[in-house]
Write a structure and sequence with these properties.
Keywords: Ribonucleoprotein, RNA-binding. Helices cover about 15% and strands about 25% of the residues. It is of the alpha+beta class and about 230 residues long. A five-stranded antiparallel beta sheet has the order 9-2-6-3-10, with helices on one face. The protein has a three-stranded antiparallel beta sheet with strand order 13-12-16, with helices on one face. Strand 14 (about 210-215) and strand 15 form a beta hairpin.
């Protein structure tokens, strides 16, 4: 278990700032071209620092290829490297944490390569539609799902991917193992989800983190929040 402060002092003596490859932008390659998009990348990287922008270079489907829903896409392949994205984070320390914990993990059968980018910022260009219909670029700078922005961000515990996930803000009627911290009258619950493997946990978190749960007679949806747990098992 590794705990980091929200913001570290930026001084001229910092090894990060004096290093030639210091950047608040991470480059991730090895992304599954059909199953990864900007939101899925955000769901994973936000565990290690605020995510400002994501620009994916995943190749769109070739012309005349039919999608599962039967629609035909008339697009061309990109000239950039397939399965690659740039992730602009809050600072270079967040990038360092993402590289430490996400480099070489497997997501949807693909081994990710995460490294510090030479670019200092993500500038959208050649924005296109991904195979799932999502945009290849997304700005997350104003989202409330970034977890290192408020004073409570210092409570974030940096944890490597694991088979056990903690979940928060779940509607109270949901059945799973819960923590005992909240009173019975609370509208939301927190608890633990144990998967058969770390691979399954990573893929579930990538897709379901920040999923909105709508229930009858509720004014607004509940935003499910997932993170890797510090506990070894249930």
């Amino acid at each position: 278990m590794i705990s980091y402060p929200v913001l570290l002092p930026k001084t001229s003596s910092s090894s990060y700032l004096t290093h030639a490859t210091s950047s608040s932008v991470a480059m991730v390659s090895g992304l599954h071209p059909a199953k990864m998009n900007c939101s899925h990348i955000f769901n994973l990287f936000c565990l290690y620092g605020n995510v400002e922008k994501v620009s994916a270079a995943v190749r769109p489907l070739p012309a005349k290829q039919t999608r599962p829903d039967g629609l035909s896409l008339q697009v061309k392949f990109m000239k950039s490297v397939a399965g690659t994205a740039l992730v602009e984070m809050g600072d270079e320390y967040a990038v360092d944490r993402a590289v430490t914990h996400l480099d070489s993990i497997k997501v949807f059968g693909r081994k990710l390569s995460v490294c510090v980018s030479k670019q200092q910022a993500v500038i959208p260009s050649q924005v296109f539609e991904l195979p799932d219909g999502c945009s290849s670029y997304q700005d997350f700078s104003l989202t409330r799902n970034n977890r290192f922005s408020s004073a409570q961000g210092s409570r974030n515990i940096i944890q490597p991917p694991a088979a056990l996930c903690a979940e928060h803000n779940v509607p109270a009627f949901t059945k799973f193992k819960v923590f005992d911290a909240k009173p019975a009258s609370s509208k939301t619950l927190s608890g633990l989800l144990e998967f058969d493997s770390k691979l399954e946990a990573v893929e579930a978190l990538t897709v379901l983190n920040h999923h909105q749960i709508r229930i009858p007679n509720s004014c607004s949806p509940f935003t499910l929040k997932l993170c890797f747990s510090t506990s070894p098992h249930l």
